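Q: Could you fold this chain for me?
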Amino acid sequence: MTDPASDLQRGAQRLHWARHQLGDANAVVERASVDAGMRSYWRTTSTHGSHIIMDAPPGLEDPRPWLRMRTLLADHGLRVPAVLAQELDAGFLLLEDLGGPTLAKVLDTHNADAWFTRAIDQLIVLQSIPLPEGFGQFGEALLQRDAGLFEEWFLQRHLGLQLDCDAAEGLQLAQRRLMDNALGQAQLMTHRDYMPRNLMPVADGPAVLDFQDLVRGPIAYDPVSLFKDAFLSWPLERVDGWLAQYHAAAAAAGLPVPPLATFQRDADWMGIQRHVKCLGLFCRLRYRDNKGHYLDDAPRFITYLDEVLPRYPQLDGLRRLMDEQVKPALLDQAAPLRFAR
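A: Sure. Below is the predicted structure, expressed as structure tokens.
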């Protein structure tokens, strides 16, 4: 819960800082977007045009990791927002304004092929960047945490399910196989939210946003995140075609992709891991952080799982859990994925 007085004080600081940086006492500031974390983004309009302020409140968000990552990516040719001014102790950054809607708002059935081709090109630039020493790892600990989100926040907190031994063992076996598959893939720079919502449709882009949490991770993670988005869905046949297109481009660029059939399985399994994690994460955002709107998109994860789980009998424990317990529990609610207040 925010403090209105603190919000007003922070707003006044933000406006004063913007006017000082831009040399315009009449500059105005309005909300541009809000992050799932504590960062927020504000559009300021002045005699110098339009710019974006990143507001990372001290003690709540540190903008330095974002800045370090931005420098690394820009130095290797990835299109990211330009930084025009900064005051780190105050938690303010002045950025170029990349325009209005994200790629998620621009994509449609007619232009998706062209935009995804460009997004694949940018992704290959990202994945080709050498990993610095000591770079974070999307390893066992993060995978275990993601698995725990699904059980604690979706199954238990949201649905009120307590699994019997057979169901719990089936889920644990499927989760273990998903984790082993992720750990067994080639590991390279991974965004973990490389999706249209975090891409801006600029002429020399798309430009990449929300990159501060990049890690060393599985090669299939970002491609499947791009085409099986948390907020935008496509027919499975188109997704499979785009994955094949990415695979060909990655192979041509010298990235360590396995044969196409293996890559397709890796992408499917990586998608399953991500989708069950998102079900838990979105429930946590609702119940812990009072951000319930994320659950509006949760039903698409059920659809993703329905599409792909039947391909893989090795994950039958998860499929049976979804069919025999999760779906009936959802139907017992007043509305699918309704959340309590």
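A (continued): The two ends are 14 Å apart (CA to CA).
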